[in-house]
Amino acid sequence: MEQIEILYSQDLRCKIKNSNAEYITIDAPEGFSGSSQAMSPTDLLVSSLGCCMFMLMALVVKKHGINLLNCRLIASKQVYEPPNRRIAKIALDFYIPQEISHEKKKLLEESIYNCPVQQSLHPDIKYEANFHYEKTILKHCKKCRIPLTGLWYNWFISKVFGVRPSQNDPELCNKCAEEG
Fold this sequence. Notes:
Elements: E1 4-10, E2 13-18, E3 24-27, H1 41-62, E4 72-79, E5 87-96, H2 102-111, H3 116-120, E6 126-133, H4 151-161, H5 174-179
Parallel strand pairs: 5-6
Antiparallel strand pairs: 1-2, 2-3, 4-5
Helix pairs in contact: 1-2
């Protein structure tokens, strides 16, 4: 049986890890006397559900030539108020940045219903899954292949890493252009 180590640190905060990973910090939400400085246990549960579904999708689509690179999932949860404090509903919005055939869409969308995480959750939790297919042309750096357009670029790459198209050569990112 796989073991997960959980360490209680302080102030309603735990650190968890399995044998192959670094520690992840879990924090109680503010509404439960925590500080909300890290993911809550229910955030982690919903994230685990989304990751499991993405992995199942990847297994299915690999055989059919669909690339999930730059796909994203926005997951949200609704929690009952005390005293029945538990997840009532999980909404999952999958954003697929490409047009695919109706047949492949069906394969992709049906793959999430074999998720072992979902099958392990309370049967009263309501689920809503929506798929959004976005017709976009993503531009990548011709050297390192990092996205220079699209949602992943706008929401993460440009903000966290400071990567942007080079002013001298728009087919390169600013980091690759600096390297020469």
